[in-house]
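New to this. Please check both lines:
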Amino acid sequence: MSIPRGPFDLAGNLYLPDGFDQSQQHAAVVLSTPGSSVKEQIGANYASRLAARGLLALVFDPAYQGQSGGEPRDLEDPYRRGEDISYAIDALSTVPGIDADRIGVLGICAGGGYAVHTARTDHRIRAVGTVVAGNMGESWRSSGFSPHGPAAALDDLADARTREVKDGALTRVNWLPDTLEDAAAAGITDIDSVQAVTYYRTPRGGNEHSTNRRLSRSDSLLIGYDAFHLVDQLLTQPLQVILAGRKGITGSYEAGMKLWDMAPNPVDLMIVEGAGHYEMYDVPEYVDQAVDRLADFYRQHLAAA
């Protein structure tokens, strides 16, 4: 499915339930995927399962990434990631058989923060689900990314961008080590980081369209971003929060609990015991638990009037 986005298109896949009848009106869910991922990875795991449970689900590559258009490549702009969701809703609203008044969103990892941030101001979104949602701004302002503080990190990024302009070449950095061997050589041994590499950079979950590269100038945008800004005032939609029970370095457990506490209309909080953050991407035991809960949530809150 091609999703018009101004001067270029987003590449999307629309998953239809068995027996879909476009002469009738159906609810649909737009998926917002983790940072660095493409539609064939985590989003497909969730979208296909939602469709198997009777819900239409649209997953797409973000602008500047995967098979979507846009230059420069590998840009991770949190504000444009949110706009992507709204453009996806625009496109869904024109599909025969989809009820434009019954569209929800599901955000996973970084996509959870993007979904929440978008739903605050795009109230065409009628229900909001998150799985191991993260607030990318808090992550980038943390000591893990900004060991000398976010202001110092911004100073360094400013100098780097000036060098880029002078040199005429854009700088890209890895999201993750490219191999488990690279991770070990760098002294990276914590379970979350190792599982991230195991998912994204091996045949288990790797995809040719996921470059594992991020344009460096993305980072200044991420440092200044707050996915949960004004949630307490603007996120009036029903909210489903799903967390991995094993806490780790991703901060998604803490971010999800913060979101739950802030939201004006929280409906259901689910903790998937035994699961780690990255195990919520593709381990059937955990993903199926989450999707069963999400399907019930969407059926209830995207029901026909």
